[in-house]
Amino acid sequence: MTEGQARKRLKELTMEIRIADQQYYQDDAPVLSDAEYDALRKELLALETEFPQLVTSESPSQNVGAKPSGKFGKITHKVPMLSLDNAFTDEDVAEFTVRIKRFLNLPQESVVEFTAEPKIDGLSAALRYEKGVFVSGATRGDGQVGEDVTANLRTLDTVPQKLLGTDWPDILEIRGEVYIDHVDFDVMNDAQIAAGKDPYKNPRNAAAGSLRQIDPSVTANRPLKFYAYTWGEISAPFSNTQMGAVEAMARWGFSTNDLMKAHESSRSMIAHYNAIEEARAGLGYDIDGVVYKVNDLTLQERLGFVSRAPRWAIAHKFPAEKAITVINDIEIQVGRTGALTPVAKLEPVTVGGAVVSNATLHNEDEIKRLGVKPGDTVEIQRAGDVIPQVLRVTKDGDAPSFVFPTHCPVCGAEAKSDVDAKTGRVDIVKRCSNGMNCPAQAIESLIHFVSRRAFDIDGMGEKQIELFYERKLVNEPADIFTLEDRNSDIQLEKWEGWGDTSAQNLFAAINNRRSIDFDKFLYALGIRHIGQGNANLLAKHYLAWDKFYHEIQSIGSEDSLAWTELMAIDGVGIGAASAIKEFFHLENNKTLISNLLRQVSVIDAVAPSADSVVAGKTVVFTGKLEKFSRDEAKAKAQSLGAKVSGSVSAKTDYLVAGPGAGSKLKKATELGLHVLSEDDWIALIT
Ligand code: IVH
Q: Nearest CA to 490 among 462, 447, 498, 461?
């Protein structure tokens, strides 16, 4: 390479690295994989070594410590970091309080106290204290495992290094929100602009990017704040109420929110919500709603969790923000399950602090209902992290009406609507009928397979999957795991943008995932209706993959025992059960799974709290329970590791029968099963 060529290439590399840095640091939305980024830097360093006269002070090689590697250590949350269910209307809030009393078997006229506090729009973090000293801090991550950002959190004034007072538990994990307030955000952006850089989009993105800096001295210069609102692992309880707990946090030196108040009725909670909404613009920091929590911690404990959110809390969201813009085009996207989804490509517009250029149109009926077509001016809305929606056409363009395709725009196969076998109802969604032979479905399935909540393969994302698929190197999941063996032919390290390190890193990341939990494996298969929640229920029920697979294979008719068992799993509905049956009976899928199992092993699920006498037992509740609501009894049994079933069979271990029990009790007696009263049951489990 001549010096001239090197100068030109160095310029290009500098630009590419700058853009990547910006995407990573400022937008918190990296586009390049770590491997791709590393390859750029490697090429730049090699050229600079060869042509030292071309090194300038502007070169990325001169900015020490700015290298985003994404290589934070991992911290497993001892207590998972959950999310919150949402309420959008006053009725939703009233219904929430009714539901809670019903679950607790309390009369509706009784008083249950709730706290209400602003929902700050930042990112959550968990701070661990041992004997009052800050020892580690993590991001939420996927709720189970977060990133170790201890050094960065240490730089925040609002993260005490040592707790005040002495009445804290020896092990104390405080959780709360990391955010940037409006004044600081404006100052930060002024400085950005003065330095000729692009301003940050919103305080949330700026906070996320600032916390995830590899170099803590960069974080130290960012105006991050932490506000405490809950806790994770603790060695001893430190309050009886939510309010008391937050007051204790304030005594120990944490910032807490002074708009938090306790209420005795949904009416007063809503009045508080309205007051906070009114004050919103002047608060000085972004909030996107109000969080209500049951104040009494004993009641919180009884209420427990449903999949990924507590039953005892809810986020009352502020109404969505709206904007007017023009639809440039309507694009049909084909998803993992073949669904054809129309997406409005919009003239970019800012709504509630974010630039929006796509909005979903859901399906063909929605397009007809709205009467929308390219060229129309429309009103759109964006609520929090929900995909923006088109609300209505405000001005007609003059294009002819939109014709929804009858065939898959990607592979050309016919697009069909499912017909419900029982009701005969035709689904409004059209699906490509070509299964995994459709490149869009295959690629989307593979992307889902490697995604964070599934196989979580570092450095393997949308771009890499598309590349491997296009080159016919990865057609199905198992192929990912044979890439390294085939590399003498593939020579990944020689591909543009790749190098030895990035190729080796990818293979290492793949090899890291050769054993995987049952629920993640099942979720990764991308079966319709099998999200994380259902995958978890199924794994907890069958425990071993082989057992599950064998049982599902043995489902013949809808009255087979295996089918009855699947349908009886509490929380698994008919849609999910049918999808499971269908998926595992398709020859293509059986081959796909056996190929995959030659590469990876599935780790059995563990029955929760095996030390309980009812762990692993199957329980059926029938008749009226008097001490607990049916829901609480079920939830309690499940938390002790029992399986709750809706129907009695020879596999039932206990039938808990209250007054008014009928056919189930009769059947259990005929089968000679163990029948318990509610009191017997309570005695058994306590
Ligand atoms: S309580 C188990 N309180 O909202 C419940 N969360 O949508 C834990 N958030 O991940 C959350 N302000 O990042 C709680 N006052 C508040 C909050 C709050 C903001 C965030 C938090 C959480 C997300 C759930």
A: 498
Give the pLDDT confidence of 460-488 residue by residue, as tens digits. Answer: 999 999 999 999 999 999 999 999 999 99
- Rounded to 5 degrees, φ, ψ at 315 are -105, 120
Rounded to the nearest angstrom, the distance between the alpha carbon of 281 and the centre of ligand 1 is 20
Residue 570: per-residue pLDDT: 81
Q: How confident is the model at residue 65 (pLDDT cuts 50, 70, 90)?
A: very low
More confident residue, 49 or 557: 49
Alpha helices in 451-559 (DSSP H): 462-470, 477-482, 487-490, 500-511, 518-524, 532-542, 545-553
pTM of the model: 0.68
For residue 84, give both structure tokens. Answer: 């919150």
Residue 585 one-letter amino acid? H
The Cα-based distances of 624 to 82, 213, 612, 633, 685 in angstroms read: 32, 56, 25, 11, 19
Q: If you take atom 24 of ligand 1, which residue's CA is the nearest one?
A: 83
Say how far residue 191 (Cα) sits from the centre of its chain. Answer: 34
Phi, psi of 83, rounded to the nearest 5 degrees: -110, -175
667: left (phi over 0), alpha (psi -120 to 50) or beta: alpha
Helix (H) or strand (E) holding 387: none
Task: Supply 8's token pair.
Answer: 């030109």
Name the residue with the closest Cα to ligand 1, atom 15. Answer: 119
- Is the pLDDT score of 415 beyond 50? yes
All domains of the chain, ordered by start, with CATH? Answer: 74-317 (3.30.470.30), 517-603 (1.10.150.20), 618-685 (3.40.50.10190)
Q: What are the E-state strand segments in 573-628?
A: 601-603, 618-622
Q: Which of 79, 177, 179 most suits a substitution to test ligand 1, by most atoms within 8 Å of the C-beta?
A: 177
Q: How far apart are CA 148 and CA 137, in angstroms?
A: 6
Average pLDDT rounded to a whole number, residues 145-165: 94
Report the pLDDT value the prediction gives residue 355, as an integer from 0 to 100.
Answer: 80
CA distances from 289 to 433, 519, 564 (A): 42, 32, 43
Residues 393 and 110: their CA atoms lie apart, in Å, by 47
Separation of alpha carbons 44 and 56, rounded Å: 12
Catalytic pick from 67, 119, 197, 225?
119
Question: In the annotation, is 666 catalytic?
Answer: no
Distance from the CA of 609 to the center of ligand 1, in angstroms? 27
Q: Each residue of 227-238: pLDDT tens digit?
A: 999 999 999 999
Overall average pLDDT of the 625-637 stretch: 89
Mutation probe of ligand 1 site: the residue of 291, 303, 312 with most atoms within 8 A of C-beta: 291
Q: Which residue has the tokens 């029948």?
A: 675
DSSP reduced 3-state for 675: strand
The residue whose CA has the least distance to atom 16 of ligand 1 is: 119
Alpha carbon 10 to its chain centroid, in Å, reads: 39
Percent of the chain, pLDDT > 70? 96
pLDDT, tens only, 262-273 = 999 999 999 999
- Whether 637 shows a pLDDT value over 70: the answer reads yes
Lowest-pLDDT choice from 83-87, 192-196, 632-636: 192-196
Q: Ligand 1 pocket by C-beta < 6 Å: which residues?
A: 82-84, 117, 119-120, 124, 140, 177, 229-230, 291, 310, 313, 315
Residue with tokens 């603790």: 234
